[in-house]
Every structure is written in C-alpha cells, then in structure tokens.
Design brief:
The chain has 134 residues and is of the alpha+beta class. Helices cover 16% and strands 40% of the residues. β6 and β7 form a beta hairpin. 16% of the residues are buried.
Amino acid sequence: MNVRGPGLIDGVLLASITADLRSLVGDGDVAPVTVTVSTPTADPVIDRAAGTYTRATDDDSVSVLRCEVNLEDIAAAQGGLQVGDIRYHIMAADVSTTPTTESVVIDGSDRLAVIHVSQDPLARLYTLTGRRIP
C-alpha cells in the first residue's frame, strides 16, 4: 500500500488540499515573502591555483510562508533549534530541485543555512528550517 504521495487519497481530494496549501502559502493576510532557495546540484569545483571555489546550484525564487521558531519548538527539539531560526513553508511544485541540508535560503539580505528539511505525507509542501549564516 502506498502511504505517501498521490496514492494515499483520491485525486479530487488531493487537488483540493493542494489548492488550499497554495492559497495559504500565497495568502496576503499571512504576509508571504519571496525568497531564493539555492540547492547544490553537483560537487563544488575548487581551483587551488586561482584560489576559487564554485558551487553549481539550482536557484529557485519562490513564494513562502515564513515564521520564526517559537520557544516551545526550541524546547521540544532538545538543542536542535535556536532562537532566531526561521521556518519556510514552500510548495514542492515550486522548486525544481529537492531542498537538502546543503541548501541555502536567501531572504532579502539574509543568508540562512538549511538545518532541517521535512515534507508533508502527501508530498505537496516542504518545510525548511534555516539558521542565519554569520
């Protein structure tokens, strides 16, 4: 039995849930923002002679629902989260490469390292937890 993705429920209900999630992520009352999710697509190229380091990435500009991690989440994570960590909820269809903990979120002038990636059971929404890169 398929317990993940489209086989979990019928197509009509899946389409309805997807539309609801998309409207939430793009809801002007909740203040969605546009960020860039930069995910490596290959190993970095290091040119020692030139002193350069080049990362091959897939950069997706996406609308997200952004929220700060709260103190209850921090306590429940038992050290895995910190004050200032940010969660980004992103429609899976909006990124062309699956985000990983090697991804970086560029949010305005802030760059955040992705420290955790999760996906809902229907494979419609990613939640990325980011930490500012000093």
